[in-house]
Amino acid sequence: MSESQSKNKRRRSVKYSWEPGLIRALREHMGYTQRELADHLEVRQQTISEWETGLHMPHRSTQKTLTMVAERAGFNYEEHAQIARDTGAPEQHSSSE
Questions:
Q1: Can you tell me the distance from the alpha carbon of 84 to that of 9, in angstroms, rounded to the nearest whole number?
Q2: What is the C-alpha to C-alpha distance for residues 22 and 29, in angstroms, rounded to an integer?
């Protein structure tokens, strides 16, 4: 693999996979409504709803933004992901929004 291919592969990696329950947990952690989170991320409120219900998943670039927002808000992704796994929350996947 060439150096440029290696850089591109690293650049495309996403630190966390934002599942529906985790997006909602982040929003609630921040004390935001769907509309407020949508305004913060510059997307529609309906988009937040679709992410939270698993109808669509955020694009890779938006997942990176969610990770940055979560870090700034002091949201512990691993802790919430473990809770979701322990409670058997279903992982829903569909097309990206």
A1: 28
A2: 10
Q: Token pair 């512990």 is at which residue?
A: 76
Q: What is the pLDDT of residue 32?
A: 98
% of residues, the chain, pLDDT over 90: 61
Q: Report phi then psi at 57, rounded to 5.
A: -115, 150
CB 56 within 8 A of CB 47: yes
Measured from the Cβ of residue 89, the count of other Cβ atoms closer than 10 Å reads: 15
Distance CA 36, CA 42 (A): 10
Distance CA 26, CA 77 (A): 8
Chain-centre distance for alpha carbon 5: 26
- 32-69 residue pLDDT tens: 999 999 999 999 999 999 999 999 999 999 999 999 99
| SS3 assignment, position 88 | coil
The Cα–Cα gap between 82 and 74 comes to 16
